[in-house]
Amino acid sequence: MMNLIQTITSKASSFPLFATSESRQSGGLAEAKTSAGITGISGTPGKEKAGKQLRMETRDLTVHYGSTVGVKNVSLPIYDNQVLALIGPSGCGKTTYLRALNRMHDLTRGASVTGSVLLDGKNIYDSEVNPVIIRRRIGMVFQKPTPFPTMSIYDNVVAGLKLVGIRNTSVLDEVCERALRQAALFEEVKDRLKSPGSSLSGGQQQRLSIARALAVDPEVLLMDEPTSSLDPQSTSRIEDLIHELKHQVTIVIVTHNMQQAARVSDNTAFFYVGDLIEYGPTSTLFTKPKETRTEEYITGQFG
Amino acid sequence: MTSDSDNPNNSSKEVRELLRRPPSAIYRWLGDRIFAVVVVLLGMSIIALATAMAIVLFGEGSLALRQFGFWDFLRGTTWDPAVQLVFGALPFLFGTVVTSVAALLISIFPAIAVGIFTAEYAPRWLSAIIDNLIQLIAAVPSVVIGIWGIFVLAPWMRDHVYLPIFTWAETSYPALLPILGNPMGYGLATATIVLSLMIVPYTTALTKDAIKSVPVAQREASSALGATKWEVIRMAVLPYARGGILAGAILSLGRAIGETMAVAMLIGNKNTLPFSIFGAGATMPSVIVNEFREAVESLHLSSLMAIGFTLFIIALIVNLIAAYMTRKFSIKGGQVI
User: What is the interface size between A and B, counted as CB pairs within 8 Å?
Assistant: First the structure.
C-alpha cells in the first residue's frame, strides 16, 4: 500500500486512510480532495471554521531535560473548538510538547521550559500563575487509563471537584452524570457508580479518565496517545467522542497513528527530533506536505 | 546472519556449531533435576525448622501447660518461682501487648511521615542520608540501645518528664498516682519509648518502598486534575501504597513483640500486676531472658518454655494477619486492561 502511494503523483487521492475521516464529515473522497486542494494553503490552518479563535499559543517553546533538548523553539497556534494533532516518530518531542502545555514538566526533576505558552493571551509560565489552576483549566488524559484504584467510578469522576472542596452531593451527582455522558460512558455504568473504577474494561477506564478530566470543566483537553493501549473498537468510540467534544473544548492530541490524526484533527503538527517540521490544516498536511520529511513520514517511509 | 555470510571465519563457525549442538544426555537429564532437588530441599528445610521449633517449645513447655492448662496458664496472674511454684503468664502477656501496641501507635505516624518525606520531598542527597541513618538504627544491636537507655534516656526522662508529671499529679490529682506509678525512670514508659524508636526503621522502609512503587501515571493523573503536592499524596499515593504501609506497621509490631534485650534492660522487671505507666513491668521476652539462668525447678523452666511457645504462636498470628491485610489492601495490577 505504501509503495503504491509513492508511485502515484497526486498524494491526495492516494492516501486511503485519509478518506475515512473525510467521508465521515463531508461525504466522500472526491469532495475531501477538492476541499483540501482549494483551501490547502500552508500557514492558514483550520479549513472549515471561519471565525476561528486562538485559544492557546506557544512561542519559541523549548523544553530541556537536563542537558538534552526535548523540543526546540516550537511556535504553534491552538484554535478554539478545534482538534490539533501532534504526530511524529517516537522520541520526536510531541509528548514533551504536550506536557509543556499544562506545566506537567514542573513535576519532573531536571526538566526546564523556556519560551512562552499563552492561554487566552496570558503566559501560563509567568511567575504569578499557579500551575494547579492551570491544570484545572487545561485537563489531561494519558496513554494508559489511570482510574484511582481505591475509588469508585463516581468518586473517580468527581475527584477533581472534591479537591476544590465541593461537597454538595446534588452538585456532585449532576456533574458526575454530565461528565459521564460527555465521555459516552453514563449508560454503561449508571447502575454501578459505586463499584471500583478499576473494575471497568480498558476502553471504559479510558472514558472514565476522560470523564474525570471533563468534570472540572476544562477549556482545553490534552490527550497523550489516549487510544494506544486500547482495542480498535474502544479506539473508535474514543475517536467519535473527540468529534463530539471539540464543540465544547479545545483538544490537543498526540498520536502515533496517522489514520487517527487524519480522522480526528482539524490541524496537524509534525515533529521530528525535537523540531516542529510542519504545521497546517490536517487535509493539507496529509495531502500536500511541503516538507520531504513530512511526506516520508506520512507515507510510511520511516517512523 | 549477515556477518556470518560476510565473514565466514573459523571462530564464528565454531560458535555456530556450539549453538546448534544438543546438550549431552547426562546434562539434560541431571541439570534441571539437581537444581530442582536442591531448591526443594532448601525450601522444605525452612518449613521443617519452623515446625521443629514449635514442637520443641511445646514439648519443653508441656509440663507447665499440663499442670496449669493452656488458658489458665495465660490467664494466671501469679508468677511465683520461689515459694508457691505457681506460674501464670498474664503479667507478661499484658506487658508485651501494652508496650508493643503503644510503641506502634507512638511510632507509626512519625515513621510514615519520614517515609513520605524521604520519598517525596527530600532532595536525593538528604534522602540518602536519612535512609542510611534509619538503617543504622535498625543495625545497632539492641543491647547497645539498652545501655543508652539505661544511662541516658531513662535518667533524662525521669528528671524532665516523669518527675514533673508525678509531682504535678501529687498536688493536683492524687487519684492519678497509682496509675502513674513510681517515676524511677525504668519501667513501661521508658521501654515503650525505646521500642518505638527501634521499630521506626521497619515502618519507614516499607512505607518508602510502597510510595516509590506507586506508578508515575497515578501521580500525574491527580496532578492533571489540579491537585497540589499534598493532594496528590493523599489522593493517589497513599491509597495506592496502603498495602505496603500496613505491612510495614505489622512487621514493626512483630518486631516490638519480640524485642528482648533493650526491653529487659529498661522495663524494671516486676512480675506482678498491676503495672503502672512509669512503674516497672515485664514482657514475655524479658522474663525469659531474665529468668532462664536461675530456673532450677523444672516447672519454672517449663513455664518459661511455655511462654516461648506462646510468643511463637503470637508471632505466627501477627504474620498471618500481616499477609492477609497486605493482600486485601494491595492494589492488584492497578490498571486492568
Answer: 88
